[in-house]
Write a structure and sequence with these properties.
This protein has helices at about 15-20, 25-35, and strands at about 5, 10-15, 40-45, 55-60, 60-70, 75-80. With about 80 residues, the chain is of the alpha+beta class. It has one domain (about 5-70). About 15% of the residues are buried.
């Protein structure tokens, strides 16, 4: 099951979500992160969007973005 978890102020995202978003093989995700070829950006909203986050993953000329707000539920609600 694909999940995104928010615990202790950190996001934990299964590699399958990233591979689907960037269109690469699941086995390559961790290798590309370690090589510095997949990078990410986490942005937190302000004012009325204070509890919203935007997570963006980059690989070469590709970008994959998730946005939403973490909840107390095990699976935060994020849009692709």
């Amino acid at each position: 099951m694909e999940t995104i978890q928010f615990k202790d102020g950190e996001f934990h995202i299964y590699a399958t979500i990233i591979e689907q978003g960037l269109g690469i093989e699941p086995s390559l995700v961790l290798a590309r992160i370690r090589e510095g070829k997949i990078t990410s950006l986490c942005e937190r909203g302000i004012d009325v969007d204070a509890r919203r986050y935007r997570l963006t993953f980059f690989l070469e000329n590709r970008r994959f973005r998730l946005s939403g707000r973490p909840t107390r539920e095990r699976h935060p609600r994020f849009e692709r």
